[in-house]
Structure prediction request, 313 residues.
Amino acid sequence: MSADTEQTRPRSSPLPVTKAVVPAAGLGTRFLPATKATPKEMLPIVDKPAIQYVVEEAVAATLRDVLMITGRNKRSIEDHFDRAYELEEALATKGDDERLRSVRESDGLAQMHYVRQGDPRGLGHAVLCAEAHVGDNPFAVLLGDDLIESADLLRRMIEVREEYGGSVVALMEVEPEQVSLYGCAGIEPTDEPDVVTVTDLVEKPAPEQAPSRWAIIGRYVCDPAVFPVLHETPPGRGGEIQLTDALRELARRKPEDGGTVRGVLFRGRRYDTGNKADYIRTVVDFACRRPDLRAELLPWLREFVERQEADRG
Prediction:
């Protein structure tokens, strides 16, 4: 970034949140060999790729400008959100209107943009890759590993940003033995029961060093003031540039300098598709809610559990 750009950038943007950034450049090593040639974001939750749920959440929260941060071997993500003329023509010829509608759903969801993160160096680095697209606008960050049951959380975070300015993170209370898996926040209450002021952030702390049990989950609304801070943020835990470290710095700054970080306390349902067991639970849960699958699947699941218990006994 040039010195001129640094001087002209507003320290805290009063503009509305209209853009969403979705980091999707990870290698997906936990799901090898399935992710050797298929992006983990394209793994299906029943019959829809996980990444589509994330984009649908952004759109439901009125964010129709979506920037996907991708990497090598991620071209299928772009293809999924594009037209598939030959497939559409084949389905139309067959008169398969239901599948034709499902295929067309994804290409008209949002204004999709893509930029490559050539060298994956952490979430903070992925967010930096969005700088040219985002400019001086506040923006949402949605991690593809986290599926949130509805867009209410993101809508509320945008409301809090509009009310207080600064940046906003989503916080969920976790068990003490889980705090080392997340960035954890030190918090102070506000006059609103679901909103807190973030006073500290620690990336994946040991349980005894965690400032609280309130963990950051994969939703953020960031003021553009985060960009110059990220430029100056050295690699942290794991040798990566951590968004948590940059937000910690912003939490210490004055509001007029883009500072203050608020947290929205989330008590809804969240699905972590970043590990195998939770991914399987997510698929089963989503399938059991589907009218076309539930009647057949639930009796089978009951029988399966009974057989497992009988075999153990």
Summary: Residues 1-10 have pLDDT under 50 and may be disordered. The first helix runs from residue 3 to 8.
